[in-house]
What does this fold into?
Amino acid sequence: MLTTPAELNRLLARTARGDEDAFARLYSATHLKLFGIVLRILRRRELAVEVLQEVYIRIWERAGDFEAGRASPITWLAVIARNRALDEARRRTPRTADEADAAEEVADGSPSALERMEMDDDLRRLEDCLGGLDGQRGTAVRLAYLQGLTRQELAERFGQPVGTIKSWLHRSLKQLKDCLES
Amino acid sequence: MTSSDDIDMVAAEFVLGTLDPRERAELNARRENEPALDAAIRAWERRLTPLTAHAGEAVPRADLFDDIRRRIAGKAAPRLVAANENFDPRALQKRIVRWRAAAITGFASAAVLAALMVFGQTTRPSDERRFVAVFQKDDRQPAFLLSIDLETRELVIRPVAADPQPGKTYQLWIKADAIGPAPKSLGLLEAISSPTRKHLPDIDPQVLKAALFGISVEPEGGSPTGQPTGPAIHGKLLPTRL
It folds into this structure.
């Protein structure tokens, strides 16, 4: 994405004042990324498009709530997209077999050396910390975050009881936080 | 009692997305009134969002934005534009002169009169959900007018006599016993020259009616501490129909 955070801040501030041109520019600068997030979680294109539409309407309505001092614009936008997609996915659990299959085409492993070169510092740091988790546990965190897998779905995928998955996630998240803050 | 570790773990799982729908909904409601939980959620959002880079980009249908544009045209904007059209700062300035005369002779309180001036002609008889607050600088003239629709929780703040301050922003706060002992931020007023609209979090209308609203002067980007740090002015809601 070529738009800088400062530009996104300005576009969001103008959107908050009802400036439709700024909103259109915000859309063109961000919709590919937000659609990627939503589609990966929901898997069905048609449904993902519907949800993306609601995401942008929410952005239009809530742009005035964005506080540049508290979050980066892309985090704020991505959180709206992910939350809306997760709410929709949870409303529909359990997923159909088709939807579950669609998940398989998505890569979920560690990034390649080439991919690592293209990462920004925050992501590289997070990847380093995720890499420190036991293999399957790191994968579980990625699958939950990127594809919206539930504890139950993770349990089936890894052939573990739900309780075990829950403690995997808790231990992984604690370890991740310690690592990021060290 | 929930320990801070528990709060952090439930916040982490909320952001990860692995809570069940009931837990998710519960947490969404709780975070409005629990600053520690809200802060923990935001911190996890910051930590994990870089991962969205792996989701990759995807292309929706090309005419999607046309649909979005149509829907926003039929939604929030017209109501706010309509509200803005009724607002003529110059006419208000003239009225302020008259209002000051009235206030000095003690006929009416400034807030009541300003509310009547701005909303008197525009409110419909059935409109009992619209409220207004007036923020005054040194009691001479309104600096900001805030109007709110208690049902939709849409809020519009119009600057009247507020000056832009270089390197500073105005930040809006709410304080009410039901929300907690400390003021809670409702966000920044980005452009001082035009109205700002906001969508309020899920706060009981009765709590809103009794709450104290504040606008403080803060460093750019908002208060660094999460609490008002600069000089502030205050206002309370009044019905638009008296």
Notes: Confidence is low (pLDDT under 50) at residues 76-126 of chain B. DSSP finds eight helices and nine strands in chain B.
